[in-house]
Amino acid sequence: MATGSDKNQRRTRAGSKSSATSKDLCTICSVVIGNDTLALNCDHCKLWVCLNCSKMPKSSYQELVKCDKSFSMDWLCKVCKSNKSDLRSISCTLSDLKSSCDSRLTQVENRLTNLETTMKDTVRSETETMKSELAESVNQIVETRLKKWMTEKIVLQTLFSSK
Ligand SMILES: [Zn+2]
Ligand SMILES: [Zn+2]
Question: 49: CA distance to ligand 1 center in Å?
Answer without folding.
Answer: 5
